[in-house]
Design brief:
There is one protein chain. Helix content is 71%, strand content 4%. It is mainly alpha-helical. The chain folds into two domains: 12-118, no CATH class; 124-312, MetI-like (MetI-like fold), CATH 1.10.3720.10. The strands form two sheets. It has a two-stranded antiparallel sheet. A hairpin with a 4-residue loop joins strand 3 and strand 4. Helix 5 crosses helix 8, helix 5 packs antiparallel against helix 10 (260-288) and helix 6 packs across helix 8 (211-245). The longest helix is centred in the N-terminal third of the chain and has 36 residues, at 12-47. The two termini are 27 Å apart.
Length: 351
């Protein structure tokens, strides 16, 4: 009948139900993450004998006076029962809350990820101010490592045992083994300060100010960060392709006279992408929460650099806010990956 779903294919209702289930699971996971984050920053220290004054000292800087610490205890209600504190914490995320600053109050609108008493401002606007730099770094590097890693993995699998395969896997092993702060400093020393090909550290320019300088400043961080991840993706893609290329349906596709490119891309690579999507979502979610080492190495004022500065300045609300922010991106990335599964492999919708 017109408008009916083709026989043997999941209907639109199944697709919608699949997405709804994943969204509900993501919301529940965010609730669990908020509770776990609260426990790490508030419940566990209190269970280990930390006093409200000791906890408050982590919110007002290293050189705070006893009067400032006592004021933080009252402002944050750290002497209230733990369940009351969590209720206020959760309410702040959803509906916002106010903080007392002596004779006046400071408003922290939703989503309130905390209030920095060092800077006298909510954490959320600070995160949004640093987010473009982190987005630029994460998405640019992700494109480079995904294309190069998967491409090298496919070529290595199709040329198994050749010099190209061995060279690519050796480079991949080096990429996985070398820490980002080592490759970052070496690349800065050679390509920026010695050869002068790329700008040095601290040269990041927002894309809204100068797109050309934005691109030039991020080429080296992109390549350095992608070198670490592309190596892992190349090895995983190679292993998946070698396993898939030996399957019966690949031999059947070749026996039908299909072009080799069609067999590789449409049949073999598509089956290999499922585990790649899984780790890609996790890796990208982690980077969106702050590429700490890369941003610190290249002096990019992103979320990762923000949390490092907050740790040094004993500004715990910022650390707490970044933790929640990063967890949100990881859960969101997992949700997107789950939905993409249904695109890559429609059988996932039925599970």
């Amino acid at each position: 009948m017109p408008g009916s779903d083709p026989p043997g294919h999941p209907g639109r209702t199944i697709v919608v139900a699949f997405i709804v289930r994943r969204v509900i699971a993501a919301v529940l996971m965010l609730a669990v993450v908020s509770a776990a984050t609260f426990a790490i920053f508030f419940l566990i220290p209190r269970a280990l004998g930390q006093t409200p004054e000791g906890m408050a000292s982590r919110y007002v800087g290293r050189d705070a006076t006893p009067e400032a610490i006592q004021g933080a205890v009252k402002r944050m209600h750290l002497d209230d029962p733990i369940l009351v504190q969590y209720g206020r914490f959760a309410q702040g995320i959803v509906a916002g809350q106010d903080y007392s600053l002596g004779p006046k109050k400071a408003e922290c609108p939703a989503p309130c990820f905390g209030f920095s008493f060092n800077n006298n401002q909510p954490v959320w606007p600070t995160l949004l101010d640093r987010l473009p730099a982190t987005l630029s770094l994460a998405f640019g590097a992700a494109i480079v490592w995904l294309i190069s890693g998967v491409g090298i993995g496919v070529i290595s699998a199709l040329r198994r045992g050749t010099l190209l395969d061995r060279t690519a896997m050796t480079v991949a092993l080096a990429g996985v083994s070398l820490p980002i702060y080592f490759t970052g400093l070496v690349s800065l020393s050679v390509f920026a300060y010695t050869l002068g090909i790329f700008p040095g550290g601290g040269s990041y320019t927002p894309i809204t100010q100068n797109p050309v300088m934005w691109f030039q400043a991020l080429i080296l961080p992109w390549i350095t960060l992608a070198f670490l991840y592309a190596a892992l993706y190349a090895r995983l893609t190679r292993a998946g392709m070698l396993e898939t290329m030996s399957e019966d349906y690949i031999r059947t596709a070749r026996a039908k006279g299909l072009k080799e490119s069609t067999v590789v891309v449409k049949h073999a690579l598509r089956a290999t992408l499922t585990p790649i999507l899984t780790i890609f979502g996790l890796d990208l979610g982690l980077l969106l929460g702050g590429a700490v080492l890369t941003e610190s190495t290249f002096s990019i004022q992103g979320i990762g650099k923000l949390v490092i500065d907050a740790i040094r300045g004993n500004d715990l609300p910022v650390v707490l806010g970044v933790t929640l922010f990063a967890a949100f991106f990881i859960v969101l990335a997992n949700l997107i990956v789950d939905i993409l599964y249904a695109v890559v492999d429609p059988r996932v919708r039925l599970s």
